[in-house]
Amino acid sequence: MENRSLVTIAEHSREKLEHLIQMASEFEKFPNRKLLDGRVVATLFFEPSTRTRLSFETAASRLGARVIGFADPKVTSGTKGETLKDTIMMVSNYADIIVMRHYLEGAARYASEVSPVPIINAGDGANQHPSQTMLDLYSIWKTQGTLDNLQIYLVGDLKYGRTVHSLLTAMRHFHPTFHFIAPQELAMPETWKQYCRDNNIDFVEHQDFNEDTIAGADILYMTRVQKERFADISEYERVKDRYLLKLDMLAKAKENMKILHPLPRVNEIEYSIDDEPHAYYFEQARNGLFAREALICDALGITLDDIRNDKTIIL
Amino acid sequence: MKQKELLVAAIENGTVIDHIPSDKVFQVMSLLNLDNVRSAVTIGYNLKSRAMGTKSIIKIADKFFTDSELAQLAVICQNLTLCIIRDYEIVEKRRIALPEELVGIIRCPNSKCITNNEPMRTRFRVTGQKLTCQYCNNDVELDKVKLL
Ligand SMILES: [Zn+2]
């Protein structure tokens, strides 16, 4: 049987990504359907993540599926020493698809190898979080009308931020120019810069973060700068306010420029920006629903044609 | 070549592993499970070598190894020579190269990798001197590898 699991976005071609974006846009037109009537979606969260779980469970529910699973690893037998494989084999007897989040890196790849039903990776440690990347791509496509030839600015924690690394891999098909803006301790790692060179992705590193540096941006992707990432707290205190986006920094922004953030934010984006037309992070989170509807359907073998000819739409 | 024949007796059929750094010879024996071999095993230890200073050689009679058994050896030393002997003749002679993928041979250095927390085989993709875990995507340099 063909393995339809989603482990990492890096395996997807340009055509596949465009296909998933088309599916998401169909779901945005009509999010409520009975397309998955009679199916069971399991959400196994070995590490709590309320935001991601609610988004997946809403996506499954709005398509008419039933949802089973657990939100808290403390109630599962994993803590009693059961292996991941045994848990997956047990749940695959009940569910048609498994959405899994795990604190160990590579857990999703392994689960996809042993599971008879498709696995969707909802985050495996510091490794991959493909549904976040899919909603980022959908948000970029929706706001810019294309994914090609964009100027994308990544700001904040570029060292540990897996979302920015996944975005690099997904955007490699679309000839972007990336701009890296980060404190030295959280700068884009050399291995990822080498990845860009190997994949013909242009990138520019900036020292400053002000209205002039970001004037050319189509997308301004903000991330959290977390205190616990710093070995030296005084270094954190020194740089923490330098990577905050303030209202007056938008003075020279291009009209089409949109601000994205994987959320939750701490103080990276001044609250007065929320009402600006450039602010897009709340819509971005909403797009997560349509992106996840698309990912669940794709993993179950439902095609774009099936979705376009769907007779189960609830108006 | 003549002198080597004098130091280590020739075999009729079997496998010869040559150019083993002498400090690796016991590791090679253990990776090939030679303590479970019933046929004759001849070891030439600390032999003079023009290229290596000293080297060791192992001859195993009536025994032929699989590619994956040999692949483990390529992880610990890169310039081993393999000779297959039939009727006292060398019918095949080649360097033991690293395969493209190492399955169940080395440990992932990342303690948060699933392979270190689940009873399963590790898988590494080999690119030059760099090995990449197929589960957590971490890289490990060949000279820092730990065998399982
Ligand atoms: Zn690993």
Overall description:
The complex is a heterodimer of chains A (315) and B (148). In chain A, the strands form two sheets. In chain A, strands 7-6-5-8-9 form a five-stranded parallel beta sheet, covered by helices on one side. In chain A, strands 2-1-3-4 form a four-stranded parallel beta sheet, sandwiched between helices. By secondary structure, chain A is of the alpha/beta class. The model of chain A has no long low-confidence stretch (mean pLDDT 94). Helix content of chain A is 35%, strand content 14%. In chain A, strand 3 (97-102), helix 4 (107-114) and strand 4 (119-124) form a beta-alpha-beta unit. The longest helix of chain A has 19 residues, at 281-299. Chain A contains ten helices and nine strands. Helix content of chain B is 16%, strand content 36%. Chain B has helices spanning 2-7, 25-31, 67-76, and strands at residues 14-20, 41-49, 53-61, 81-86, 89-95, 101-103, 123-127, 130-133, 139-141. A five-stranded antiparallel beta sheet of chain B has the order 2-3-1-4-5, with helices on one face. A four-stranded antiparallel beta sheet of chain B has the order 6-7-8-9, covered by helices on one side. In chain B, a hairpin with a 2-residue loop joins strand 4 and strand 5. The longest helix of chain B is centred in the middle third of the chain and has 10 residues, at 67-76. The A-B interface holds A 83-85, 102-107, 109-110, 124-127, 191 and B 110, 112-115, 117-120, 133-139. The site of zinc ion has 8 residues of chain B, from loops. Residues 108, 110, 113, 115, 133, 135-136, 138 of chain B line the site of zinc ion.
